Amino acid sequence: MKVKIVADSSANMHELEGIDYQAAPLIISTDVKDYRDDAQLDVRQMVEDLASYKGRSHTACPGVGEWLEAFGDAEEIYCSTITSELSGSYNAAMTAKEQYEEEHPGRKVFVFDSRSTGPEMKLQINKVKELIQAGKDFETICKELIEYKKNTSLQFCLESMRNLANNGRVNPAVAAIAGMLGIRVIGDATGGVLNPTDKVRGEKKAIACLVNNMKKAGYKGKQVMIDHCYNESTAQKLKQALLEEFPNAKIVIAKTFGLCSFYAEEGGLIIGFEH
Ligand code: X90
Asked: Is the pLDDT of residue 180 over 90?
């Protein structure tokens, strides 16, 4: 049985050890250049280009063709997308699923709306991998993933929300605050959208606020994934702060890829966690 996990590139993953995995790329575009969010993308260069770029920029989700290409010729496919509230990725994947299953009777695609992005998608993808490796069948894995989603959440901490506001993904009044010197906007993915909850000045307060919000959301020391956009140092401090209270927590720090770097912008942190 050929089994595959696929996800759009907002999951900040190009590969997954021990299992067939493929990412469908989103595209980041300015008036002068398109950046395809795949393993070849030079994220640092893109972030630098964008920092000095004054014109318009936008993003596009994978099309049906890109999803079909990611499905390849697998017989059972688990497909995770960025929240359908903010992107057409889920709809495109659903259309691809219908075509794929019609063209290849017997094959099955489960399209999962993460209602989130980045590190929370990673947690969900790792869960699917674990279930596959435990030998569970397709229907059970789908059901268990839906259950698992009830116990994961996302927090973000952003220093700039310019690209989010310019692309209509967040309230411009909130974005204006994130643009002020030293102010970070913290929030979660309640409802599958960006839900700003706090505005804090300075790194220390940001870390305290994130830890506190995670605990309020039910965090008790399980797995955490911190994806950062060129802000390893705050990510490390957040990790230490969590470890002080939860010494056995498994906390993995990684980088955002193209799509999340575009929207989270330099300094941004996105945290996925289990509760
Ligand atoms: O289809 C497209 O063009 C993609 C649009 C994506 C829009 C939002 C991406 C946000 C990425 C920002 C912080 C995390 C917020 C999570 C809320 C669900 C990263």
From this structure: no
